[in-house]
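job 3f2a | input accepted
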Amino acid sequence: MDQLPAIYKEYIGLWLPDLLYSTLLTLQIGVLAFMLAVALGLAFALLRLSRRPIARAIAITYIEIVRGLPIVVVLYIVYFVPPQLAPGNDWKWFSTFVGAVVGLAIHGGAILAEVFRSGIEALHQGQREAALALGMTPAKSMAYILLPQAARIVVPPVANYGIGLLKDTSLCTLIGANELMNTAKGIAFADYQPMAVFLLTAAIYFSVSFPLSLGVRYIETRWYYGR
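job 3f2a | predicted structure (227 res):
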């Protein structure tokens, strides 16, 4: 442990550029996966609340199956299975970056679908009935009456999910995605300095996730609690 300052003095200039570049890719994966997960989650939450049995069955099947799988399994299925199902197609566009974004988004969509559903169902049913009585369509009552109020309920857990998603990007190293953990692993094995490299990597993860945690706390205080 007392050798760490000397190690960082010698290697920090070599390690840091690659780690910071991979951090940027990690953030890109996290942001894109989060946006897609929110879209999927909202869509399947609305299907879950639909009065049509087929729509509810589709949503329940997706949510229960995907929530019951580890993220790593979802990543493996998303990245390795499609090329085997259609080997004749050109899969060069389906990079590890794309596979990481899609896999994380599919898993996150199932989680957020239940978050959105619980937020909508927490509202009093009379609001929807009143909107329908005033002549609004079910779609308009959902868009203009229910969803804006549900947002105040679901924003804190959704934001916390986003922080967890940023750390879950480290699992994408298992499919070869060029993110922070994958780069750190390569550097650690190449220079035989695993402790120093992974401590530096942990510091980078913390420096990114801690400001996000403060932002979530601010949202909970200023918006969710109305203070």
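job 3f2a | The chain has one domain: 4-224.
job 3f2a | closed
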